[in-house]
Structures are given as C-alpha cells and as structure tokens.
Amino acid sequence: LAGIAWVAAIGFFAIQIARQSNFLSDKIRVVYFWAISLAAASLGLSAIGRAATADATLNALLTFSLLFIWRFFFVPNSRGSGRWASVCIGLGVLTKGPIAILIPFVGSLFAAAGFGAMKVQKPGQELSIEHLRQILGAAIGRWLELIKDYLSWCIFIMICIPWYLLQFQAQGDAFLEGFFGTHNVGRFVAPMHGFSSGPWYYPLWIIVATLPWLPMLARLVFFVFKDPIFRRPDLWMLWGVFFFVLVFFSISATKLPHYGFYGLSGLIVLMAFTATLTSSAAVSKAGGDPNRPTFLVDRLFLAGLFFIVSAIPFWWGLISEQIADPYYRQVWDLTEIEFKANWAWFLFPLALGWGLFFLRSRFGLMLAGLLFTVFLHGVVIVSIVEALRGPIYLAAQEIRKLPTEVVITWRLAAPSLSFYSQRVIRPGVPAQGNIVVIHSKDLSSLKSFLRQSLNSEPSVISVWEHGGIQIVNIK
To answer: What is the pLDDT of residues 196-224, one digit of tens each?
Structure first.
C-alpha cells in the first residue's frame, strides 16, 4: 500500500507541474501514465515497495511534502499547501526521523530560488547583479512566508513531538544518543554495519534503480542540455533535491541503497516529461506521426533485458563459482535448481522480447516495462527469496519439537526463525546442553570456539541440515 501511495504521489506531482506551468498541458494524460508507469516498473522503487521496511512509506510522505511545497511557491492562493506539507513532514518524522525534515527543507530552498527567478527574470533577459538581488529578495520573502506560518508549526508539533517526548521519558538520554546520535549523525561520520563504498556508489545505484528505463534516463541527460524547457525555474526543486541527495549521501560514511530513493521521485517526474516529448521531431522527419514516437532504442534495450532474463536457467549456475561465501553459494545453487525445474516460465519473457520488435504504441512500451518488473519480482526474486527463506522455515519446524530454553542461534541473524517457530529464539554463547542453529559453513568455527571454551574436544551432533542452515546439539 505504501508503494502504491508513492507511485500515486509521483503521478500527482507530474500532472500538477505539467498543468499549472502550462508545461505539456495538452498532454496531461500521457504525462500521468508515463509517470506512474516509470515509477511502478522501476526496479528500485518496486523492490523497496515490497520490502518489510518503512522506506516506501517515508518516500511517499517525502514526495507528497515536496508536492505541497511546490504548490505553495508556484500555485496562486495555495497557502494551505504549506500546512499539508507540515502534515506529511510530521508523519515522515514519526516514520524515520529527521531525514523527513532535511529533504523538504532543501526542496523548499530550491523552490524558493525558482520562484524568485520566475518572478523577476524575463525570458531572454541577461542576468545582472541587480537581477540577482531581486531574485534573492523575492525568494527569501516567499520562503519566509512558508516558514513563519505558525499553524504549520502547530500541526507539525502535534503530530510528531508527543511520540518523541514519550520515548525520551521512557529511555532518557539513551534515546537521544541512540536515535539522533548513532543512527543519524553517527551514520554520516562513520560506516555502520560495514556499509561503506566509494563516491560512485550512488551514480551506479541510480542506473540500476531506474531499470528498465535506462535509455529514458540517458535521454533526459541529453534533453537537459538541448531543451531549455528542462531548465525552467519551476523544475529547479526536482533537480536540486536529486543532486543534493546524490552528493550528500555520496560523502556520507555509511552508504545504504535506500538513501538514494530520497531524490528518485523528482527524477522520475523529469523522466516522465522526457518520455512525453521523446523523438517527436525525429518521427516527423521520418514521415511518422509526431504524437506516436516509436521509442526504438527503448524497445531494443527492454527486449535485450527480456532475452537475458529468459536465459536465466542457462547462465545462472555459471555465477555460482564466483561466489566466495559458501552459504550464499548454496543458496544460489538452490535457486538454479528451482529455475531449471520451472524453465517453462522463462518462455514468457522470451515471447515478450520478440514482441517488442513489432511494438509501436507508447502504452504498449509502458505495459512491457511493467510486465518485466512483474516477472522479475513474481518469478526470479520470489525464487531467490524462497531459497533464503525456505531453510529457515524448515529449521523452525524442527525447533518446535525441541525444548525452548536450550535453543539459541550463533552467528545467524534470522528474526523470522522466532516467528516461524512461534517462540523467541535468542542469539547466545554456545555451551554444553545447547541446541544451536547456525550456518553450515560455521560448523568448524563452532567446534573451534567450543574447544577453547571447554578445554576439551566438544561433542557436536548434527540434528538437521538443509540449504546452508544447520541445527546441532552440543553434548
């Protein structure tokens, strides 16, 4: 549901800008369908929308808050939009903390700058120091109107502050140090849980997250230099938030994939505008209908992805030898067995790939992109998840037959183990009398640990093993 709300927010954002700015105002329906299709079919957005985390909810609230802030600056008589933005920001702070303030704050600065430029600068007019002063004055004046609205502050405080006060009352300084210090400021200044990478992490992440629409992303980069319509001041917020997220989190010590989503909504809106304008001139030169672009490059790229996916049963096993971790290699091998057993499913993407060579409709391309993502999540990713989840589920069924107090985990992070076994299985220090759930790869390490702690040769009896997960009894 949160993912659907996020897609809807992106669609509303796209048509609001198109309609209010007279930007593609005669193609509102096309803009809307492109926006929701690009969003729903994007690999990154569809993945996080299905994840058991609050990130899709946060991003839906961030997108709505940016939409309302944009309306405040560019839609006449829209003072109430700032208050609706406060509602979304307050709910966002409840969802995942201060990031729900940072992104709208940055967005408001770029929107204010765009507002000032639109109000002062005339098309074709040379920029001067006086114009810059006037733009800055108009921008600051309108931005202060947004910030000084006391009712917006009251709404924000009533929504989120009570929960934070209750948490502080319950935990004291530990809450402030843990939530704001460790999990916010701490993540920026030092890597957490080993999630660190170089400066190219998020640029490469954007390429993966926007699949299967990479040609559309490349076309947007081309259009922004070619067509001044993509440099309009009322689009500065979209560009500004995207590049802020890209730069800010690239210099962060901790790099997690979901950080990149904070700037993705605006990028998808810009891609929707790009798709709506794509290749009209080229089609006209070729004697075609400028309202029905062929999207040849997009079709060929998507067909290539379909062919690659359809061949998964043949090439999946070749990667197994490159996986260093024995557990994940075993998971990969289990997935290969599943793919080969269900090889007939992969005829579907093969047929769609060939069908794209005969496709001429833009709506057909939208549908093909959606079907690609549906197949990926419905067949490929489901099989991978089952290879990861299945052994945990089966281990839990074995645990249900055992005494609760003696079962622990060691070097195994699997919260679902407690859920499936209908009892709390805690991590612990292995000792005689324990039944321990481990990765099969850690059996020798467990014996070595017990040898040191017991000062004798341990008796470790395997009770159950499947898919890289093992239950052992320490006698």
So the answer is: 667 788 888 889 989 899 999 998 998 88
Rg of the chain over Cα atoms, rounded to whole angstroms, equals: 27
Which residue(s) pair with 435 in the sheet? 407, 473
CA gap 412, 469 in Å, rounded: 9
Question: pLDDT at residue 289 above 60?
Answer: no
SS (H, E, C) 324-365: CCHHHHHHHHHHHHHHHHCHHHHHHHHHHHHHHHHCCCHHHH
Q: Helix crossing, 362-375 with 28-41: angle to 10°?
A: 20
Q: Are 464 and 470 in contact (CB under 8 A)?
A: yes
Assigned token pair, 121: 């600068």
The residues near 449 (Cβ < 8 Å, ≥ 6 apart) are 430
Confidence grade of residue 225 (pLDDT, cut at 50, 70, 90): confident
d(CA 105, CA 171) in angstroms, rounded, equals 29
User: What are φ and ψ of residue 21, in 5° steps?
Assistant: -95, 5
413-432 pLDDT, tens digit each: 888 888 888 888 888 888 88
Output the average pLDDT for the chain: 83
Q: For the segment 60-96, what is each residue's pLDDT rounded down to a tens digit?
A: 999 999 999 999 998 888 878 989 999 999 999 888 8
Per-residue model confidence (pLDDT) at position 286: 37
Amino acid identity at 61? L
SS3 label, residue 294: coil
438 and 412 Cβ atoms separated by less than 8 Å = yes
Please report how many Cα atoms fall inside a 13 Å half-sphere around the Cα of residue 475, on the Cβ side: 6
Peptide bond into 233 cis (omega under 30): no
pTM over 0.85, yes/no = no
* CA distance between the termini of the chain: 49
Could you tell me the strand order of the sheet in which 469-474 lies? Answer: 426-427, 407-409, 435-439, 469-474, 460-466
AA letter at 96: K
